[in-house]
Amino acid sequence: QRTLWPGQFVHVTLQLSTDPDALVVPVQAVQNGQQGAYVFVMKADSTVETRPVVVGRAVGNEVIVEKGLVKGEKVVTDGQLRLVPGARVEVKSAAGVAGGAKS
User: Fold this and answer.
1) How far is CA 94 from CA 34, 46, 101, in A?
2) Phi, psi at residue 82, to the nearest 5°?
3) What integer pLDDT is reported at residue 63 of this predicted model?
4) What pLDDT was estimated at residue 5?
5) Which of 31, 40, 51, 74 has the most neighbouring CB atoms within 10 Å?
6) Who contacts 40 (Cβ-Cβ below 8 Å, separation ≥6)?
7) Beta pairing partners, 67
8) pTM more than 0.90
9) How far apart are CA 27 and CA 41, in angstroms?
């Protein structure tokens, strides 16, 4: 019968829209500074640069980046407090953190 009794509750998630071309990054990659939101982007020579981004809505542990990144760029998800533009980083893979660049 699937009837709720008093004191019971249900978690409901509604999908209001779908954006198939959305560019998403882990929420921990986005930093907030005096000039707004930014990420550390890993360049081809394994150094990083800061990149201002415009973020949209967050969905779970991911946030939509509306402007500032292009598909395929790697962003740093851990150790940002130790980074400055031009710092060298390396990609480390751990269980559940595949592809995250760390300092």
Assistant:
1) 32, 19, 11
2) -95, 0
3) 95
4) 83
5) 40
6) 29, 31, 48, 49, 50, 51, 75, 76, 80, 83, 89, 101
7) 54
8) no
9) 14
